[in-house]
Write a structure and sequence with these properties.
2 copies of one chain form a homodimer.
Chain A: H1 2-8, E1 11-16, H2 21-33, E2 39-42, H3 50-56, H4 60-64, E3 67-69, H5 72-75, E4 81-85, E5 96-97, H6 99-111, E6 116-120, H7 129-132, E7 137-139, H8 152-168, H9 187-203, H10 212-226, H11 230-256
Parallel strand pairs in A: 1-2, 1-6, 2-3, 4-6, 4-7, 5-7
Helix pairs in contact in A: 2-3, 2-8, 6-8, 9-11
């Protein structure tokens, strides 16, 4: 996990000419949820600002440690790969990557010990061509054509999420083991369960001339699918036993008539 | 593209007990950027609201067409698969999926023509256990342990993005349609099923002082997992009816004693 933290520290989220301080705060929170803390602010319109702090929702450390620069060239100092987020295809003839392709490229550089920047433009105007020209490739989040503009912090969230997924990669957590997990029912227990179920159906006079085989096959299919554990089996055995008890009393009653 | 729109219309984003109207607006925008328009609001604290409209940033159609319901059961009516977003592992032991696994499962159901719900809880408290019990599995966005809470609309954005990527990925999902397939039970049918089951357990005197709530939650979990179709529901209703009939005769008998 400290390896992940180390790796994560090589990535910077660079926000350029951000208009709304609230978006800076939301972006900090979005980064922080995915384990990233390196934020660079290039010529933000208003910062620091109460709205930024409010929307950071506890990710204050990200804001406090944010690097502030007047221009993008300074903001990218120390990074060897800069990927610019862009909603639209531009006149700039930069290679266009999907988020996943961009993240793979970023991660490869980070694995070599390089510092990487993801660059996000102004909310309304995006990245200027001159800013994109400072980037090595651009990443387009595949939004729909008729409503293509993600909120800035949403774009940050998508990229931070994709980056974390890629970093977790194959060290993906194995199936979560529940401490309270009940053992799954084995085949022999399932057979006893089906026998009890079949007997119960007989006792409550469910079949009424229908083929018990078809019904039992359908019930088997259903309960096999559910992959029950032992506690669930005990519960159902208990229910069957009560239904049988009622049937037995009822049968006594019918017998009297 | 119209195929994608058609497919997208089978997915609903269900927001439960949302506190901040601004988050509803941001969620609408997030959905809309990825081509989704089906929003369901369950007991929102304030809606409609100016802040929701402001933050929708042009996705007003999503808000205008949002379905409003007082409870989650109604909110899920018509859907056959409900996946609940949950930040934490809970005492509820529902299957836990990654966003990508959840999206794959959702898309498979949608390709069969089914309606699917992604369910998002209250900003502060998330989904209650009873709400999660209405879901077939839960999805955990893999945030870091020490800062795990995504803003609501950010979680919506991540899921909408993953869903769109998956939809773009397998443009032509070969829907494994079985000729003999029965329609899957929808949420309202499942509720009637659970009511009948609960009544039957009462009638056969199953509880004997034990808490019916715990038992019913366990049974819900079991049967939700099985994702039953309508024919299976009819079969189980028939079994319950016969058990009730026996109990009723038996009760007549006991009354005589």
């Amino acid at each position: 996990m400290s390896d992940l933290t180390e790796l994560a520290s090589q990535l910077r989220f660079v926000l350029v000419r951000t208009s709304h301080p609230g978006n800076i705060g939301s972006a900090a929170r979005a980064m922080r949820t995915m384990g990233f803390t390196g934020m660079t602010l290039v010529a933000p319109h208003r910062f620091p600002h109460d709205e930024a702090s409010a929307l950071a929702a506890g990710a204050d450390d990200v804001l406090e440690n944010a690097a502030l620069h007047a221009g993008l060239v300074d903001g990218l100092a120390g990074t060897s790969l800069a990927l610019g987020l862009s909603a639209r295809r531009r006149g700039v003839d930069l290679e266009e990557l999907s988020p996943r392709e961009g993240v793979a490229r970023a991660l490869a550089a980070m694995a070599r010990g390089e510092k990487v920047a993801l660059v996000f433009g102004n909310e309304r105007t995006g990245l200027e061509n001159e800013e994109l020209a400072r980037c090595h490739a651009m990443i387009r989040i595949p939004s729909v054509d008729d409503f293509s503009s993600l909120n800035l912090s949403q774009a940050v969230q998508v990229m931070a999420y994709e980056m974390r997924i890629a970093m977790l990669g194959d060290q993906a957590p194995a199936a979560p083991v529940r401490a309270d997990a009940e053992p799954p029912a084995d085949a022999a227990q399932m057979e006893r369960f089906y026998e009890h179920l079949a007997q119960t159906l007989d006792d409550i006079d469910f079949h009424k001339g229908r083929a018990p085989t078809t019904i039992m096959l359908r019930l088997r299919k259903l309960f096999q699918r559910a992959q029950m554990d032992e506690r669930e089996l005990r519960m159902l055995h208990g229910i069957f036993a009560d239904a049988q008890r009622m049937a037995s009393i009822a049968r006594g009653k019918s017998g009297e008539q």
